[in-house]
Amino acid sequence: MTSFVFPIAQWTNAAPRLGRVSMVVASSSGTGLLVAAHEGGCIATYQHRHSDERPVLVPRLLLLARSNATITAIALCRMDIDGSSANDNVIISATHDGEVVLWDIADGRSLLAAQVYPGAITSIAISSSARFIICAGHSNSIVILHASSLAVAKVIQNVESWTSSIALLSTGPQTPDQLFRGCVQGRVTTYLFDEPNLDLVLVGTVEGIDADTKPSPSLGSGSILDIHVCRFGSNLIMAVKKKVCHILQRSQGAVKSICAIYCTETNLNGGWKGGQFLSSQTVILWTQSGMAWVYFVGHAALVNSETLANIKANGVGGGIVLLSDGVSVTSLSSGNTTLTNQGVGISDLSYGASAFSAIASFQSDRRFLGSTLCILPTYPSSSSGEGTAKSPLVMYLARFHDSGRRLSCWPFWTNLSLTDAATIPNGYPTYVQSAKKDASDNIAEGMIKFRYNLDIDLEESKAADFNSGLQITSAALVSDKLIAIGCDSGKIYIAPITDVLFYSAAEFEHHAAWILDGHVGAVKCLFQLEVPSTGTSKNILVSGGVDLTIKIWNLELGSLMASLVCHSHCVKTFLPIPQNSGMRVKHGVISIAEDQSIAIIDLDSLQSVHILSGHMHPISALHWRSHEETIIVQCCNSEGTIYVWQLKTGHLDRIEELETAEDIISCCDKTVTLSDFSQDYGSASGKQTFSAYPIFSGVETTPILFILQINLKRFINDIYGGQYSITPPGTPPQSRSQARPNSHRLNHRRTLSSLSTNAASTEVDAPESPTRSSHVGLQVPSVFNKSPSLGSNRIRLGSSTSAATFVGGSPLPTRPTSSVEKPSGGTQMNADHHSPVTAQIEDVRPVARGPADRNLVRGVLSATMVWGLDASVDQTCHDVLEMGVPSSLVSVGNRGANGYISVPFPSSVSAVSDWTLSPTMSASRMLQVTALLRTFGSKKEYEKQISELISTLCNIVPVQSSDSAAPKYQYPSFAFLCKYWQDQIMDVQHAARKLFVSTLKNMSEDDKRAVIDYWKSLLPASQKQNSKTNMRAAILLGIIGCEEPSLYSIRLCKDVAETLDALLKEDVRGPYRMLAVELLGRGFKTWEPHVNASNVLRSIISTTGLQSPSTPSGAPSPSSKDGHGGSQALGNALVMVSRQAVVQIASINPGLFISTVTFDFVHSKIAAERVGGLKLLGMFIAKKPLLLYSHVPRIIEAMVKSLDPNVPGMREAVQTVVTSNFAELVKTFPNVSFHHGSQKLAVGTMEGVTIVYDLKTATKGYVFEGHTKPVTAVAFSPDGKLCVSFSLEENCVRFWQLSTGFLNSFANAFGGASPASGGTAGHVKSFREFMAGAPQKPNPATNFDVKFEWLTERSVKLHSIDEIQLVFTV
Q1: Each residue of 1217-1248: b (16+ CB within 10 Å) or e?
Q2: CB 373 within 8 Å of CB 399
Q3: How is the beta sheet containing 523-533 ordered, strand by strand?
Q4: Of 550, 688, 1169, 1296, which sits with the fewest C-beta atoms within 10 Å of its C-beta?
Q5: Helix (H, G, I), strand (E, B) or coil at 1221
Q6: Strands across the sheet containing 1250-1254
Q7: Average pLDDT across the chain, whole number
Q8: 102-106, 571-575, 955-959, 1173-1177 — which one is most confidently predicted on average?
């Protein structure tokens, strides 16, 4: 079953400090996308927004993998992810411990994650086919991965030296890529990547790189820092060392150095750091201190320098612009080079090692060691949307400062014709132009000097709307509805889970339900556990703060039980002591401090019994040997060091490493893996309904955001199961000594006006309203009612003991009356009677489960709601469901592979930014909202409004901006929705189906064609493989084909039908078989011409659970326990889907269904198969009689044949089922009659014939011929001697006499009748005939209203249509 877990993030009010940028990469497609890896283990994506006044780098997404993993390599590439893309759409990140993660650029989802390399990965390369990823780093191996799965395809072993950088050069569609590998020893080796055989063929080592002699023999030595391949089609490669950059050229398979550019920085920390090709003859190199130079590879005499104004004034020549800052131009005459689609073309680069010249420098007043630089190409945007495509590409040299909080950028133009350069607007960009009073000062000795850069404060851009967040430093769930939040003030707040999404920092102090006040300074970690006690258990909360104390709180009594000082450094995490670990401490907790010391605390004696210190490396796990009272501390260093402690004496026994350490660990009984406080999102269980944790950047003492992780499907299931009640409980009588908080709406929300204006949000409290009562025991969920809030009566807790208070079954703290702080109004309003009462706490048992639950569910829905897309939706949510807009600091993210999460930065520009990220994000958000709304729709009072609300949401098509550069609304992803098409949670399933069908309906024809064209190329019939992607393509196209078959060609229908047919042969428990069954049933009219329809129907019938497993003899298997023919073994879901599919196929082609089923159970030699077919017919007789009406004679004939006494044992096996079916037929169809005494069964046919069967011999007894139109009703007389028939279309009644004796037989012989003899039916003619009126038009639906009622053995009453009753006597 596909999970559905997503995070809701509350950002802190301080600008998030993500740490120093360790590496940065930008998209080369001109989209303005920049991806920065920070030292804290996170990745941030930024979007450049152009402006004549000031460019802005807007933060988009924060990607979180593991905070204890350093990102050592990052790359962008294009892959097919739920649709084709012309630009880079995937981020590939690699870490110091060999993990590779694929991220979706659009929404930040973690697509795949795998541990693939034995050391640190320093470089990543993607093959030109985008099918393989090559990883290399600090190991003597190169790993080739499948890009679609990150599975290791091949490992190239025994590679010389470690790898510092690699790059792939595409040499053509029919030739292998060439791999350039730079090693830490300074050499560059080349390989041919043999993709079909997954091999790297060594070509050789590039000559001349190690033999540097200028300016000294040692300057060229050192590691290769970076390797770049020129993407402008000139076979150039750049190899960067600290002191020298080599320009290499590939010619006729050989690679040689044609140019060496030395760094002029002479200080100890100076030298080159990286570079990039700007064209086939220009390169940019930057230094360790953040300075950069542009070099022309060629003779300096070929370069011209002039001002842009002169070019515009004197006309445009035929030259090529190498570089321009918008004021000055460095160009190359057209006689020396040409401009192609790939960039500046060259004719000859054999100029020697000195054939280069500097044409530009990028400098600033300050130098920043440790800065990270990259080139960011962008197309200027236009507010009108016109002229954007004609505007030349603007390049930015972007430099992240060492703190990671500021960015400097220099705009420039390169690789243009002079014609394009003349289109650069005068004075563009204004922030650079205004600083340059004299253009001639900018050109000195033919070099453009970029001295004026723009500084962008990233904190300022991130914090544009960060004005009221929480200073949360730790968090822990204390029940399934409540959370403990530790803050930098030293206080711990106990509150409903969703309160953190609606309260600002100032408000939370006044609205939290309970406060534990004891720490001095920030609370760094919290841990909740239950300690068994006599006949009950204690709810304990353990906290650790920067004041170096560990405090133990009793949440039942609201008291501080103990305050301990166990460490000289702050505690960073707590662990439970596992059961049966052999320790004498039965109930305890383990604390681990930042100095890696360990304290074992006994919660019974409230003392620290052991303190273990001296660990030199971070701790990764604890292990126990229960029979020896030994604890082993495992560290996460390269040697795998362990510390063996003897707990009996409390001394360190020994320290071991490597193989010895592994042997000792393998003999341990219990293990607890350490979960660091800063990486809880990686270890949080997706199976829990709620998880809550703060996110730290790794460099700050306060978190950058707070995460509430929700398992949506489990949450909905818990609501239906009664764990979370959205129906208010019955209100018990209250005495004056009992107090309830004020009644108001959702805790904190912004007004709807804030969605349409940029004004500051306003906080409002809704008017008070009495709580509506309802039945406590109701299991059917209902919509929220106005409810009391726990927040209006808070209790501050210190070290004193107080009385116990329970809320919703969860123990919560209280304290004596004297310590109660009243609300600001001075009095409390009784929620039921609106009369002021005194705040009393003694003997308080408030019925708070209902309000707390309703606020919880309402809060989740408010945080995920589609605010701002439709005014009517906003109004309904606000007025009907009493929801509120969450804080502007709240954003909803994604949880992907390995539990890694991505969270959008809050947008201060528009509330609809989430809907422009990606189709998957739109689908996820819409599914969250519609599924939750369906859960509330069971209350009739709001059923209509919620139904209309869901319909509106599913059909939202926002008006697109006229600005062509503005982000577009992304339709929900079909691939995402089809994963939940058959979800076991019905609300999720129905929501996914509704969204899928509505999205398909709302899309334009061109969009539909684009989707179909993409996915049809991934069908197994096209790719000849059955990967998960291929199966998803088949299911997705199957759904579209069922909804709109007119979109498909005959060939595509055939491919989809054959794929669905093949999926029927999967294992019964396969994930796609049930989907194939449903889609073949729904779209059978579309797929029938392209498959063997009878075989498909038989395959589906085999999964209906109506055929019991049988032994070879035909008897039911003893292992079959249930009475539904093995439905339990198949799974109830598959059984129900299969039966529905059979009904759909029968509705589309009844003849096929009847002929297939009857043929199978008549000719089958296995009793179980016959019984299964008969049960299936019985189901249709009872549920779909109109469908079978015209086929009843064929069905009866087949069932009679199954009773053949000449087949040993078969009659006995099917007799019970056949008898039941006959009874249902007689009861349902008026043209079927049975006489018990003679065991005869009569059935009227559509041809006007009535057939009488003898069930004793299973033969056809009589054939009554006389009617010319279908027989509508038949009936035997009570003595079985007569049979009457009626044809409604003829409006004629006929009587027939059966041969029951010698004289009757003699009379029939003379009358022309031919009684049955020798197994041949006797043909009988009617002896009386009556006309009941004028002939009627055929209408099968009205035939069921016709029936006979025998009054005597010779008198019968006909009940016809229109309530006509006629009596006939013979």
Answers
A1: bbeebbebbbebbbbbbbbeebebbbbbbbeb
A2: yes
A3: 523-533, 536-545, 550-554, 559-564
A4: 688
A5: helix
A6: 1232-1235, 1240-1244, 1250-1254, 1259-1265, 1322-1325
A7: 76
A8: 102-106
Structure tokens at 459: 């904190």
C-alpha distances in Å from residue 209, one per residue of 121, 257, 425, 762:
24, 7, 44, 66
**What does the block give as tokens for 1363?**
């309530």
Strand order in the sheet with 372-378: 372-378, 394-400, 406-412, 454-457
Integer Cα distance of 957 and 963 in angstroms: 17
> Largest alpha-carbon pair distance within the chain?
134
- Kindly tell me the burial class for residue 439, based on how many C-beta atoms sit within 10 Å of its own C-beta (0-12, 13-18, 19 or more): middle
Distance CA 408, CA 21 (A): 13
Tokens 């430093």 — which residue?
473
What one-letter code names the amino acid at 1115?
A
List residues bridging with 1110 in a β-sheet: 1116
Rounded CA separation 147/126 (Å):
8
Q: Tens digit of pLDDT for each residue in 368-427? A: 666 788 888 887 654 333 334 456 778 888 888 766 667 788 888 888 877 777 777 655
To the nearest 5 percent, what fractions of the chain are helix, strand and coil? 25, 30, 45
Residue type, 625: R
For 727-746, the pLDDT digits (tens) are 544 433 333 333 333 333 33
- Chain segment 340-354, per-residue pLDDT in tens: 444 444 444 444 445
State how far the Cα of 1154 lies from the Cα of 1188, in Å rounded to an integer. 8
Alpha helices in 1064-1149 (DSSP H): 1073-1082, 1084-1087, 1093-1101, 1127-1130, 1132-1148
Residues 689 and 718 sit within 8 Å (Cβ to Cβ): yes
pLDDT tens per residue across span 1285-1333? 999 999 999 999 987 554 454 444 444 444 444 445 677 888 899 998 8
Asked whether the beta carbons of 671 and 622 are under 8 A apart, the reply is: yes
Q: Is the peptide bond before 215 cis (omega within 30 degrees of 0)?
A: yes
Amino acid at site 260:
A
Pair type for strands 1282-1287 and 1273-1276: antiparallel
Distance between CA 944 and CA 939 in Å, rounded? 10
Q: Which residue is listed with tokens 């099918």? A: 131
Angle (deg, nearest 10), helices 1073-1082 and 1132-1148? 20
* Better-scored residue on pLDDT, 1120 or 576: 576
Give the whole-angstrom CA distance, residue 527 versus residue 478: 9
Distance CA 1269, CA 414 (A): 88
> 1136, exposed or middle or buried, with CB in 10 Å at 0-12, 13-18, 19+?
middle
What is 51-97 written as a DSSP string? -SS--EEEEEEEEES-TTS-EEEEEEE---SSS--SS--EEEEEETT
Residue with tokens 């002021």: 836
Q: Is the pLDDT of residue 795 over 60?
A: no
Instruction: Report CA torsion sign: 1343, 1346, 1348, 1349.
Output: positive
Among residues 1075, 1074, 1080, 1123, which one has the least CA distance to residue 978?
Answer: 1075
For residues 1267-1280, give the mean pLDDT: 93
The sign of the torsion formed by the CA atoms of 1191, 1194, 1196, 1199 equals negative
Residue type, 1200: V
pLDDT digits (tens, 9 = 90+) for 532-541: 776 667 888 9
* pLDDT of 1339 higher than 90: no
pLDDT tens by residue, 445-467:
667 887 666 666 655 444 444 44
Mean pLDDT score, 320-327: 83
Full DSSP string of 1294-1312 = EEEE---SHHHHHHHHHTT
The kind and range of the H/E element at 408 are strand 406-412
Rounded CA-CA distance 921/60 in Å is 13
